[in-house]
Structure formats: structure tokens, C-alpha cells
Amino acid sequence: EAQVTQNPRYLITVTGKKLTVTCSQNMNHEYMSWYRQDPGLGLRQIYYSMNVEVTDKGDVPEGYKVSRKEKRNFPLILESPSPNQTSLYFCASSAISSGANVLTFGAGSRLTVL
Amino acid sequence: SQQGEEDPQALSIQEGENATMNCSYKTSINNLQWYRQNSGRGLVHLILIRSNEREKHSGRLRVTLDTSKKSSSLLITASRAADTASYFCAPLSGGSYIPTFGRGTSLIVHP
Asked: What is the pLDDT along chain A (114 residues), one digit of tens a residue?
């Protein structure tokens, strides 16, 4: 089944403890992206990647890092999480070669930073 | 990239009624996409309309696009309780591969 898989789905952590949220897609998509969703603010893009070894900042990149060493994986790294990074995170991917860039989303990762 | 602005922010209707939500954007586009999000879950793509199309249908969904007014509307006919969700539009500008999303329209369909 074509899908985007995120892990963990739920995580409670403490300020300053490094964590990684993994994202993997099995559709050979070039484009991958991370969003965060907060009440009243909609979805905001954190980072995106157009292909392997190519990453760019979105609208809210501060406090996050990403890497794209393989086409299928796009992990989101929080080096020193803070409470304002408590949010619902979504990974998405698409085949930009199609010209339409229709996104397939993961199920989401709910992160709480205490 | 540009983001769309959905209107209204919230919509509450009875089952069987039609629901209309609108999206406005600022600059010319290649295509515009609509997505649905059930509470706390990932967005699901509903329909894509290209800049040279004026109307598109998919089941009970009808999307229109007016490029002169830089706006699109999503109509859900004969709504069901299962249509309760948030709906987002994502306009894609020429040369951009980056869909961005606004705050969405929260639709509640009462049984």
C-alpha cells in the first residue's frame, strides 16, 4: 500500500532532550515536506526537500533540522526541544515529476515538550 | 509559494444540506488543490483543478475556479455526518512545487 509512515505517533519528552521523528515513503516520491499544525494557525511548513541531498527552509524552520540521505526517508530532528515546539507534526510527499504536486500525508506525530 | 485563505472559518449545517466553502489567493496559479482533514489526522487530497479549467466534479464534490477573481469554491452536495472535517485549499503558483496551507474551513455536519 502506498503510504507515508511517521514514527513515533505520540511522544512526550522534556526540554533539551534531542529527538528525531522519522518519515518514510514507499512511492519513490522526489518531494518531501514537514509541517506543524497548531490550533488557530493552520499548517505551517518547516522544511522541504525536492530530492536527495536537497533541502530548503519553509516558513518556520527555527529549532529544527532535516536530512535527505535517501529518497524514501526524511527525518525531522529537534536538537534541543522547547515547549513551544509542542505541536502536531505531519510529513508529506509527492511526485513533482507529475507536475501537479499532489501531497500524500502521514498520519501525524503528536509531540509534547515539557 | 502562496497560501490560500479559506472562508468561512467555520460552517455548521444539517445532514442533507449543501456546504460551500471558498478559497482566495493572491497571484496567478498553475493549479489549486483541495484537501480534507478529519480531526487530528493527516490531510487527504480531494480534487485538483488546473488554471485552464473552470469547474470539476468528483462524486458529491464540485469545485469551481475563477482566475479573474483569484478564487475557488468547494461545494459538497447532500452532506453527511462523515463529511465533518476541516477543508484546506492549496494554490500552486507557476514554477512552484510547494503547496502551502491556510487555516482551513471547519465543517460540522449535524445528523
From this structure: 889 999 999 999 999 999 999 999 999 999 999 999 999 888 999 999 999 999 999 999 999 999 999 999 999 999 999 999 999 999 999 998 666 789 999 999 999 999
- Say if the Cβ atoms of B42 and A90 lie within 8 Å: yes
Tell me how far apart the alpha carbons of residues B109 and B80 are, in angstroms, rounded to a whole number: 6
User: In this complex, which of A43, A100, A101 lies closest to B101 when CB atoms are compared?
Assistant: A43
Q: Report CB contact under 8 Å: A100, B31.
A: yes
Q: Considering just the CA atoms, what is the radius of gyration of chain A in Å?
A: 13
Nearest to A107 among B41, B88, B90 (CB): B41
